[in-house]
Amino acid sequence: xxxxxxxxxYVISKQMKFLLxxxxxxxxxxxxxxxxxALLYCALLPISTIAYDERAKWDxxxxxxxxxxxxxxLSKYLLGLMCMIGALVIIFIGTLVYGLFTDTxxxxxxxxxxxxxxxxxxxxxLIFMAINLPVIFKWGVEKGRLIFIMGIAxxxxxxxxxxxxxxxxxxIEIFLNNYFYIVVLVAVAFLGASIPLSISFYxxxxx
Amino acid sequence: MNAIEIRxxxxxxxxxxxxxxNLTLPQGCIMGLIGExxxxxxxxxxxxxxxxxxxxxxxxxxxxxxxxxxxxxKEDIGVVLDESYFPEVITAKQVNKxxxxxxxxxxxxxxxxxxxKFSLPHNKLFKDYSRGxxxxxxxxxxxSHHARLLILDEATSGLDPIIRDEILDVFYDFNKxxxxxxxxxxxxxxxxxxxxxxxxxxxxxxxVFCEEKDRLLEEYAILKCSKExxxxxxxxxxxxxxxxxxxxxxxxxxxxxxxxxxxxxxSIEDIIIYLVREDRK
Lengths: 207, 281
Hints:
Chain A is an all-alpha fold and 207 residues long. In chain A, 90% of the residues lie in helices and 0% in strands. Chain B folds into 2 domains: 2-204, P-loop containing nucleotide triphosphate hydrolases (Rossmann fold, 3-Layer(aba) Sandwich); 216-280, no CATH class. In chain B, β4 and β5 form a beta hairpin.
């Protein structure tokens, strides 16, 4: 499986470097806001590599190598998780450094608050990935992308609807403060269901 | 032991059926799978590699059912697929790293010696490779993990004759080891005729024959004669014919011909073309 992940990193190394640069700069300039997009982007990276694979018909080639379908599916989840965790760490540290620049006084409570915040975003993007990957392993990249875009639109719609009542960021903060553990649990549950589902879809697919 | 053993293999698509294929490739031999485009060659190879699901049949590769623990078996198989490649932005140097984590027996030295032999640049992006270079890279990979069986789908098609010859030589060398077998598909009959011990001919999803090449060449012959003479020939011994204004040219079974008649050698290409012609009648 290491070979598969290495191959994916080679494929996305250019866009990764660019994203990393943007992420570091923007986090240092404006805190975690950009990080939300970076996390979403990371959740999309496995799909982008699957698109590359399909175009080169590497998916068929890989299936003829000593890899099982399970290995191939797991490698994509691992790739997504590795990138997202990397982004999470950068966002957290970057936001703290940004705080030092802007003379924010960090207390134990405000750091916990920050962690809650970015972990919540992490979990939400994880849920996106967990929904999206099985769809892609069953139907291929084109349809999967469509569903992902629809998901983002629905999510934005919900945020938009709540922000009619209050200002957006406070609405999100209130939501996450109240439901943090539920969000984490839901993310773990979705991921737990998503992986076996993807494996069973991909095993059934003719390459 | 047999390198590949296929029994009653069937795969149905809405517009095409691969129908009840039976063939055996003994270890140490080269088998060529011949057929027109769309005859079912790639489908057969995908089924051998368990990439697609079958409707019926058994496949054993290197003595093992290919639905059980096939990952282990795949360590010993070098595969080149038709138009299936590395992602565009990968280089030959990166392929080495990827494969060293993919195959337990990956041999970096062998790989780089093939890159040199095929004059493949190490750091050029895969998408900038020519078709011939892409094929050669895939062949280099297939040969660099000490495989015992090569499965090659149209590995020589679309290449110029000089490169094709060079690559056929590489396969020939590989086959010198008694444990090394090759299963190669192509629609270029002359390539297969050069290197193969066995020829399997597949036509519209059905296996027409799977025979030793030398037996085929012995069994069949080309008869050229006048129409009058042709009428005296046992029609059962005629496997295909072309009737022109001046006479008849026919593919016949050599040992069923009357003594003293002049027969010409039939090439594999003749055999295949005449058999298919018969089918069209």
